[in-house]
Write a sequence for this structure.
């Protein structure tokens, strides 16, 4: 069982399986990943399902007796990417756009890029193990999420 009081932290969701009901969070401090259960997600995050990947969240971190790390009480970080009416509207169709990498962590394969067409910061998860660096030009599918934030896919 986790310790009673967790440590406040934040990170980016690396993966989430709706079928299995759990996922992994890349912690902002760059240490190891934390596992989380779907039941630890705030309702507005849980509603996103597999679109959670690349989302930045605040959470509490607990170190378990076996040394693993668990994230609980996960909530979205307000205004994390882009503008829009939080929680309103629907996810829009994907659009291929050009952008430049702002930051990229090769250990977690998570990064941010600026979408040139929309002057919008986009979070992404590199599934292809690309050798990305700051300033690199990339092409990706832009997915506008229901809360107005942007996610880059298929770099």
């Amino acid at each position: 069982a986790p310790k009673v009081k967790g440590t406040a932290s934040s990170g980016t969701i690396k993966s989430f399986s709706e079928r299995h009901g759990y996922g992994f969070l890349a912690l902002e401090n760059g240490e190891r990943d934390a596992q989380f259960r779907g039941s630890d997600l705030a309702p507005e995050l849980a509603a996103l399902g597999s679109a959670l990947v690349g989302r930045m969240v605040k959470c509490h971190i607990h170190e378990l007796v076996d040394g693993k790390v668990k994230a609980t009480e996960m909530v979205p970080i307000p205004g994390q990417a882009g503008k829009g009416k939080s929680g309103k509207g629907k996810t829009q169709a994907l659009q291929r756009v050009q952008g430049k990498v702002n930051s990229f962590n090769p250990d977690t394969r998570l990064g941010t890029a600026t979408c040139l067409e929309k002057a919008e910061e986009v979070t992404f998860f590199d599934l292809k193990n690309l050798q990305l660096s700051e300033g690199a030009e990339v092409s990706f599918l832009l997915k506008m999420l229901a809360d107005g934030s942007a996610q880059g896919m298929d770099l």
Notes: The longest strand covers residues 7-17.
